[in-house]
């Protein structure tokens, strides 16, 4: 993990919002993004902004306990980002997307996880050297209380072999990495596998 300066984090967050929106994974102000900063604070998106049209003023700083450091209102889901940084000290960036495929999958699957087996794309996830594996993407029920989501998902995130990602049912995907590039790769790889699973089912139907 490389903690970076606020101006660099702001640049990365503005860029990732454009990228995710271009993919159709940030509709209607959904999603939020954060980066661990070199002074121990965090850069995070301001709440309610359209993430494909972020300007520099739409990225702010919060302390490790989520307090606004510049008077702006941080993402409503800031606590979920900070929980990931606390659990995984090597995490440097966290992304949250709302894609139709991932949200659809989370609604179609009743259990607390979805297993990807045999995908070459599994190798895009850190620490997975082969396609010949099964990786369970945890799924947690949605809540407007971030402490409820955090409490319910933490055991699954700490399980052996857990990917650096989870789905909130009827809501969206969280993914993280040592830096922004790795977090982007995690989100893109999982979205690819979810889309592939959907395509597979449509060909079989
Ligand atoms: C408008 S739907 C999305 C929001 O309710 C929320 O889930 C979200 O992802 C964005 O919230 P935000 O407070 O802008 O970070
Ligand atoms: Zn959301």
UniProtKB/TrEMBL annotation:
It comes from the Bacteria. Zn(2+) binds at residues 96, 98. GO terms for biological process: L-methionine salvage from methylthioadenosine; pentose catabolic process. Pfam families: Aldolase_II. Its cofactor is Zn(2+). GO terms for cellular component: cytosol. Its EC number is 4.2.1.109. The keyword Zinc-finger does not apply. It catalyses: 5-(methylsulfanyl)-D-ribulose 1-phosphate = 5-methylsulfanyl-2,3-dioxopentyl phosphate + H2O. Pathway: Amino-acid biosynthesis; L-methionine biosynthesis via salvage pathway; L-methionine from S-methyl-5-thio-alpha-D-ribose 1-phosphate: step 2/6. Binds 1 zinc ion per subunit. Keywords: Amino-acid biosynthesis, Lyase, Metal-binding, Methionine biosynthesis, Zinc. Catalyzes the dehydration of methylthioribulose-1-phosphate (MTRu-1-P) into 2,3-diketo-5-methylthiopentyl-1-phosphate (DK-MTP-1-P). This is Methylthioribulose-1-phosphate dehydratase. The gene is mtnB.
């Amino acid at each position: 993990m490389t903690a970076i300066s606020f101006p660099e984090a702001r640049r990365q967050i503005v860029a990732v919002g454009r990228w995710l929106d271009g993919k159709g994974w940030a509709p209607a102000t959904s999603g939020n993004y954060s980066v661990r900063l070199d002074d121990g604070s965090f850069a995070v998106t301001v709440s309610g902004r359209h993430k494909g049209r972020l300007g520099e003023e739409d990225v702010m700083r919060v302390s490790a306990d989520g307090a606004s450091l510049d008077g702006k209102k941080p993402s409503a889901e800031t606590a979920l980002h900070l929980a990931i940084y606390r659990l995984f000290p090597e995490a440097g960036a966290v992304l949250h997307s709302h894609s139709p495929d991932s949200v659809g999958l989370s609604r179609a699957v009743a259990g607390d996880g979805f297993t990807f087996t045999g995908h070459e794309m599994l190798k895009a996830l850190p620490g997975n050297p082969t396609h010949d594996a099964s990786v369970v993407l945890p799924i947690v029920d949605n809540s407007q209380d971030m402490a409820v989501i955090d409490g319910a998902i933490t055991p699954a995130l700490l399980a052996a072999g857990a990917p650096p990602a989870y789905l909130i049912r009827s809501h969206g995907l969280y993914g993280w990495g040592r830096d922004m590039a790795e977090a982007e790769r995690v989100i893109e790889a999982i979205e690819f596998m979810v889309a592939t699973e959907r395509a597979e089912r449509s060909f079989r139907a």
